[in-house]
Amino acid sequence: MSHLDRVQAWIDADPDPATRRELQTLDSDSIAERFSDTLHFGTAGLRGPVRAGPMGMNVAVVTKATAGVGQWLIDHGHHGAAVVVGRDARHGSEQFFHATTEVLAAQGFDVVSLPDPGPTPLVAFAVRDLGAAAGIQITASHNPPADNGYKVYLDGGAQLVPPADDEIEQLIGHTDDASSIARNPVDSDCRADANTERYLARLGSRFGTRRSDLKVALTAMHGVGGELAVEALRRAGFTNVVVVPEQQHPDPDFPTATFPNPEEPGAADLLLDLADDIDADLTIALDPDADRCAVGALVEGSWRMLTGDETGALLGAGILASRNTVAGTASSPLVASTIVSGSLLSKIAAAAGARHATTLTGFKWLVRAGEGLVYAYEEAIGHCVDPDAVRDKDGISAAVALCVLADDLARAGRTLAGRLDELFELHGVHTTGQYSLRVDDLDRIAQIMRSLRHDPPSELTGVVVAMKDFRLNPPAQSTDAVQFTGTTDTGTIRVIARPSGTEPKLKFYLEVTESPGQPLGDAHVAAQRRLAQLTDEVSALTNAGHR
Prior knowledge:
Distance between the termini: 39 Å
CATH superfamily of the largest domain: Alpha-D-Glucose-1,6-Bisphosphate, subunit A, domain 3
CATH architecture of the largest domain: 3-Layer(aba) Sandwich
Largest sheet: 6 strands, mixed
Number of strands: 22
Radius of gyration: 23 Å
CATH topology of the largest domain: Alpha-D-Glucose-1,6-Bisphosphate, Chain A, domain 3
CATH class of the largest domain: Alpha Beta
Helix content: 25-40%
Number of helices: 18
């Protein structure tokens, strides 16, 4: 089939008149780009710009993807099983949701439809709670407004892992044209409201209820988590929650946040302004689908959003110290973080007599870290504080856990910042940072990674470094990443380079540690100085790798 025939065949088979018209108005260069490849189905499902053609998120692509997922479930003995489907409020989400539920219904599945825009953790929870065979959430999480996505849960509510992603992609490639794939209407489902209530009840059993005077400033970042977060906190006893009004309700255009990611510089400015205005005790920022959570604290009199690693250390230490964990089923509880996360949690776990596991990036690996898992986090403000209920990152439950921790500290006259300093006194200052290179041409990322492997730096910040190539690990632990580590006179440095799995970025994860026993102020200054130098040198490496 010629290129023009393939384009015309796609247009003829597109079930959405709007995207058919869109393709018919494009010039030849745009058509060539739209049909240069397809969105690839990976362990994160699908993610891409909302637009017509096989390189975009649209009804045709979602219809074919769902037919492939459904066939995979049938092939693995799940015909007729329950499948949970939810959505966020992004452009296209409602259309994609209906395409997904209706294709699954036509394939004979018991579709548990969550029709209102809602947080991703509700789908992960429902899969596990209902014993469903799978879950699908229509979301692009914290991506820019133009994007949408399709996230799949299997295996008791965890994200899928290889080889399931490759098997599903193969099946998608062999599906019928989108217009030929059967769709059956799906009625409203009483299990949707029950799911939200059961999720909130689980939070109550996990964290209890108290009466707290803590004043919390919260933003939903124009996403779908604001209402549920406020209700979850209210039921936990945190009734003094003030939201950023401009960002509380879903808005697919994200008018106050071009990059609706709490980690992005400036994204939390409205939240921190509100915290100042109301004299808050802490701030909570959810990302748009509420699976991630960032916390802000007063540090030396000024508001600062804590890093994911700082928050991970605080939550990990708090969970390991809680009586619920000590009295739980795991005599030696397990906490987990990823290869790109900071190393402080491992030291906290060792001091607490707990186990620590390091996994590849992503919660698909973290929640499979081992038996007795009580907490897992990744540096990108993702936290799993109740693995028995939600086997993925969950910003709502993390927000409750952080407020409980802050309230416990406040009752003892302490603060989150003070607790961090206590951990640094015990285990040494751990300072982490990132450097990201966003590209238009993915070949540039491949070129830089080749340069790092074949012509690695021998020194960074004047320290001799050793390289580790994670591609040389055994298959189950292999990934496209390289690590450089070195020992300074007073601590360590570490750099990990890894292409992003969801965006056209090359990411560098940096860590500088200073050994315990030094004056804390001096250690902080030394770590920050070396981190700044390390960032500059990493930036220079990306330019060298592109020459």
